[in-house]
Write a structure and sequence with these properties.
With 195 residues, the protein is mostly helical. The chain has one domain. Helices cover 73% and strands 0% of the residues. Helix 3 packs antiparallel against helix 8 and helix 4 packs across helix 5.
Length: 195
């Protein structure tokens, strides 16, 4: 039992830091670059992505192992995974609008774009490719979402500090953001020797 708990903790830690879906696989970069201008917006989007990724990854596991695999329909996994993600994002969007209309308006177009966020589809596909069991898919989904949220909040904080700094003209805009993303990727993978 302790071995299983340690294994799940290792997977959770790795999905946040060393195997961060955003900084290791560069999945979800479009919303990462677009929503990382303000910390409040980045935090709201990060929570939404964490919630969607944490719930859709095990949902996709259930659909894959209970429906697609037994009936030899695995070739439909891309379409079915996207349908599951889109349905859950619609539910999350309605809930966010009811709970916090200000956050809903701050997230703007990025909230419906979570549906096509390749990080979420990537987490579902990695779960299937790596043959995770249900518990591992839950841990991996929430860990990957938390890792994505940490990265986007860190980038938003850095970008807010940089707004008051002098950035060389050739690096202004996307150039400096991509350089910072690369440095963050190096920092996150620096945790690889911890476990």
């Amino acid at each position: 039992m302790q071995q299983i708990n340690l294994e799940l903790f290792g997977l959770f830690f790795a999905s946040i830091f060393t195997g961060n879906i955003l900084l290791t696989n560069y999945l979800g970069m479009c919303s990462f670059l677009g929503a990382s201008r303000e910390v409040k917006t980045a935090f709201g989007l990060g929570l939404a992505v964490t919630l969607v990724m944490g719930i859709t990854t095990p949902l996709c596991w259930l659909v894959y192992y209970l429906i697609l695999k037994p009936y030899d329909l695995y070739y439909l996994r891309f379409i079915i995974f996207i349908i599951v993600i889109a349905a859950f994002v619609q539910v999350a969007e309605i809930c966010i609008e009811r709970i916090s209309e200000k956050l809903y308006h701050n997230l703007g177009i990025f909230l419906p774009l979570i549906t096509v966020n390749c990080a979420i589809l990537g987490a579902c596909l990695f779960m299937e490719i790596r043959h995770y069991n249900f518990a591992q898919s839950v841990v991996y989904g929430f860990g990957s979402g938390i890792g994505w949220m940490l990265a986007v909040i860190a980038m938003a904080g850095i970008r807010q500090k940089m707004a008051k700094s002098r950035v060389p003209q050739p690096l202004a805009g996307a150039g400096i953001v991509l350089i910072i993303a690369g440095i963050m990727a190096i920092a996150f993978t620096g945790f690889s020797g911890v476990l």
